[in-house]
Amino acid sequence: MICIDKLVYRYRSANRPALDGVSLQIAPGSLFGLLGPNGAGKTTLISLLSGLLSPHHGSIRIRDTALTDFRRTYPNAIALVPQDHAFYPMLTVAENLAFFAGVQGLDRRTQASRSAAAIEFARLEGVTRQLAGELSGGLRRRLNLAIGLLADPDILLLDEPTVGVDPQSRHFLLDAIRTLAKHGKTIIYTSHYMEEVEALCDDIAIIDHGRVLTHGSLATLLADDVPSLHLRLPQPLPATLAHTWATRHASFTTCGREVTLAPVTMATLPRILAELADAGLAPLGLSLGERNLEQRFMQLTQRSLRD
Ligand SMILES: Nc1ncnc2c1ncn2[C@@H]1O[C@H](COP(=O)(O)OP(=O)(O)OP(=O)(O)O)[C@@H](O)[C@H]1O
C-alpha cells in the first residue's frame, strides 16, 4: 500500500502551495488515475512520490516504510516516466537503452536482457538504430516508457504519457499500460484527459488547486446520487432560462455549452425540453441519470476540465 498523508509542497517562488494537504491510499497492483486540469498539482505529487522533491509537511509511506528508507532499500522499485522526454536525442534508441540500463547498476547480462525486453514491449525493434531526436512524437513516448521499464520497477509513475502522440500510438500506449497492470505493477497515471482515465483506471482521484476533490472507484465516482440531466447544447443557455433552472433545481451547473441539472426524472424531462424548444434550442446530446468524469469534475468545481 502507498499511503500519502497530508502532503504539502510549495515551490520557492510560488505564493500558494502546489499541494495543500493531499492524502491518498493506493493499493498494490492498482491502476490509479490522478486526474486534474493543468496546474492541479499532478506533476508535483508524482515528483514527490519519485523522490525528486521532498514534502514540506506530511509523509509518504510504502509498505509501511517511509519513502526515503524504501528507496534506499529498493532503489529500483519506483520508476518515473516523466512528461518531458528523458533521453539523449543525439544517441540512437539502442544506445539510449544501453546507457540507461548501465546506470541501473545491473550486471551486463541483465542489462542486455532488460534492454531487449523493453524494446520488444514498446515495439521499438524497427527503430533501434535511429537517433532518438529524430523519432516521431509517438515513438519518443514509447522510448520514454521503455527506459522507465528497464529497472523492472514494481511502481511505475506515468506523467501524462500520451501528450502529443497520434491516436495509433495513444492506443498502443494505453494497451501497454493495461498489460503492465495485469502483470501486477502498481501504476500511477496522471492525465487531464478524462476519457483516458475513465477507460484505463480502476481507482481515481480528482485533484484541483493542490487538493483531492474526490477519490474512489470509477463506479463510485460516476454513480449519480440524485438523478441528473446532462445537456450538450449548440450554444450557451440564454440567461433567462439559466435563471429559471437555477432557481427551480437543487443543482444547476453550466459551463460553455454543457449544462447539468438535478433532480430531473422522466416525468419532469418533457417540461425541460419544451423550455429549451421555446428558447429555440435543440440539444445536440442528452443523458439522464448517467455521467462521466468531466461532468463529475464540473459538479465539484463549477468548471470544465478543459478550461
Ligand atoms: N518550478 C516551479 N516553480 C513555481 N511554481 C511551480 C513550479 N512547478 C509548478 N509550479 C506551480 O505549481 C502548481 C502545480 O503544478 P503541477 O505542474 O504540479 O501541476 P500539473 O497538474 O502537473 O499541471 P500540468 O498538467 O500543466 O503539468 C501550479 O500552480 C504550477 O504553476
From TrEMBL:
Gene Ontology molecular function, alphabetical: ATP binding; ATP hydrolysis activity
The ABC transporter domain, residue ranges: 2-234
PROSITE patterns: ABC_TRANSPORTER_2 (PS50893)
Plastid is among the record's keywords: no
Domain of life: Bacteria
Keywords in alphabetical order: ATP-binding, Cell membrane, Membrane, Nucleotide-binding
InterPro entries on file: AAA+_ATPase (IPR003593), ABC_transporter-like_ATP-bd (IPR003439), P-loop_NTPase (IPR027417)
Protein's UniProt keywords contain Membrane: yes
PANTHER family: LINEARMYCIN RESISTANCE ATP-BINDING PROTEIN LNRL
Protein name: ABC transporter ATP-binding protein
Organism: Parazoarcus communis SWub3 = DSM 12120
Lineage: Bacteria, Pseudomonadati, Pseudomonadota, Betaproteobacteria, Rhodocyclales
